[in-house]
Amino acid sequence: MEIRFIYCLLILGLSLVGTGCPPQETSNPVTPENISEVVLENYRLTENETWEPEKTYIVNGTLEIPRDITLNISPGTTVKFGRNALVTVKGILKIGTPSRVTQLVHLTSDNIGPASGDWNGIFFDHTHDLESFIRGAVIEYATIALDIKTTSPTVAECTLRFNETAIALDGSDAHIRYNDIIDNDIGISTVGRQTLPRIENNNIAKNETGIFCENVQSTIRHNNLNANVFALRLNVKFDLAVANNWWGSTDPIEIADVIIDGADPGLIAKQIGTVLYEPFAETRIAEAGFPYPTLLTGLK
What is the pLDDT of residues 63-83, one digit of tens each? Predict the structure, then answer.
């Protein structure tokens, strides 16, 4: 009798296990290596980092790259920025690749309906180095996409579009070449008397102002400066020589109409120099601008 009782209890226990609540499904633990979206809130790098295209990075607040720290953003990576997000560079920032471009880095707004000025942009804060570069990137919807002060990164083979200002150079010898700088309020602004930025072989088009210039030491040549409301605005009392650019016309009167300088009779607020634009290119410069337009179709 006792053995039979124990046997019945055993059968009852097994039946309860079989008919009870099913165990909850569990997945493999999520590790940083297999997260596809990385959200960074007011993030300060403490060591060198490389961001990879397998992940989408979302930056809110301020992303700070301190001195002696390097951030590499690999080709194919997408970084999205929340409202008023800002990148401050006191160390080294390498965006894209120093060699041939096969994939683009995409730096864009995280808003559903993006607009210029959604995020603040990238601020190079007196880094005094030549190691940072931006090559093979699309940068859009910022207040100042690249705000470059007292440093000289190369900005090459990029598209900068839909920003309030695409590139601001202040005390910089930066090289700006083979870019499309289009659909911004201001394409490039230059300040500083003793520096020698080089702005060459770019398409600077469909901006309200193509170049706003207060640095007459700037080298500005072999660019397509067409289809802007104003191709160039000079805002300093010295003359500026900018030969061998294409202005969208071979008529000197039409070229002068898209340049704001001391030759404009309506300028009475301050003394302004004159833009010396001759000789000018007589046809569009075919080799200027972003050389990989087909890659734009693959952006996320």
Answer: 999 999 999 999 999 999 999
